[in-house]
Protein 1
Amino acid sequence: MSEWWTYSLSDFLLFSSRTYYRLFDLYNAALWPAHLAALALGFVILALLVRGGMRSNRAACVMLAVCWLWVAWAFLFTRYATINWAAAWFASLFVVQAALLVLAGATGGNPGFESRLRRAGAIGLFVFALLIQPLIGPMMGRPWAQAEVFGMAPDPTALGTLGVALLQSTGRRWLLLAVPLLWCAIAGATLWTMGAGDAVMLPAAGVLALALAALWR
């Protein structure tokens, strides 16, 4: 029996990159055109973030919670779990994040806009998740049918949530960052093990979010 330190991440990967991306292909084909509704919801959330204010923040948090619940059920639990036994646990994390977002929306409070740099970075992260991240796969040679869309796939949903979390007051900011940051690490490790060219994207976004969250002004 090999010692534990002789194992690498690839030894724990239960599927190939072809199987992983094929999952998105089938998922997108089965649920199209729900992606259009998800994108529309994403644009509404973006408009609320740009507008700012307590009511807009509450609405954005609740809408984002819907996205997390949908991804937890429709992708992680129903589909990803067929190739990865840990997906059911991931789905539970997404449900927890949805609950935290609802709680943040229900408790209200003024969002934390004291830092212009943090606000600009937060909006930038959300725009990237909504408009740029779905294009990265096709730009790297994967079919459009495998594109990962905000509100439908876990990676862009988590990345966009980093932006929303950064716009919260200090206590809620760190609370809402925990699960998305954990997912950035999990997804980054998975993509790295598969040899994906975009493996560093989510971890880099997480590091940026941490730096912006720590800004005093």
Note: The first helix runs from residue 17 to 31.
Protein 2
Amino acid sequence: MVTGVPTTQFTANASAPGTAVGVSVSNFLFTPRDTAVQTGGTVTWTWNSGTTGHNVTYTGGPTPLPDSSHTQSGTTTFSTTFTTVGTYTYHCTIHPTQMSGSVTVVH
């Protein structure tokens, strides 16, 4: 037994992902790149890209994959409501090497 050593207590706090999550599409990036949402929740991508076109194209995840967006620019939006648990990957088909992300859906 060791005496005279102070004890330390740690507390961890966690919260569940939201049911409404926003992702910005600007500067050739999805921000945040990776996000999480609860089952039944919606992710909305908002374009802040001026005249540069981008899209959200699903590349992996539970099947069937959700519908992808059309190429858009300006200040438009695109939303997906997720009903199946899993991780969905996506990218912009115009800029696939620099614009990619994921959505993790949890209970």
Note: The mean pLDDT is 92.
Protein 3
Amino acid sequence: MTPEPLIVRAATPPECRNCNSSVPLDEHFCPQCSRIQSLGRHGDYFSFFGLPRQLVLDPQDLDRRFRDLSRQFHPDFFYNATPAERLASLERSSYLNDAYRALKQPVSRIEHLLSIEGLPLGKSEEGGAKVPPSLLEEVFALNEELDEIRELREAGTDAAMLAARLDSARRPIEVKRDEHERQIGEASTRWDGQASATADERRATLESLRQLLLERNYITNLLATIEREAAAHG
């Protein structure tokens, strides 16, 4: 069964605790009385920043939005406010920091998009326990090479020679990583251009991004394995 996208909008708009006016979920302050709103139910970092769900963002624009909201939410401005408003400023400041960290980096930005669109990676998948089919050849070759390097190390082989073997083993994995970065960039650009695409087309792009990220995580683990082996030789 196809998972449904995460819904972050309430069935009815929340009400301002001060004036009882309806306040859209993505509004930080009541349009009627200008009081800061409690965070309530949220989950979409893009909308929190007033951004569309796009993966290619202008870093300077994101930084500007972060600074502006940081000033608006700063607890110092609510020192003499009601307890509810002071709590709201703290909640929004904390949530803002989480949202900024997630959207600032391309990979965590994609992970968040996948989550709110109903295709989260899942903690069990991030470690890449199962070898992705597209990486079987590289994984097999690397495991064989590392086994040989360990045997050579136990036999007392020169450290410089072992380091050279590790560098040679690292290169094809790094090439694979760079190719994945390129493919992720292309898929991200494709997603941003699909505002008027069909649901199936958008879904296919999301599934492609998800698979690429799973493979990328596995590649990262392979490189970490090589680095640990190199440290053991140090």
Note: Residues 125 and 214 are 7 Å apart (CA to CA).
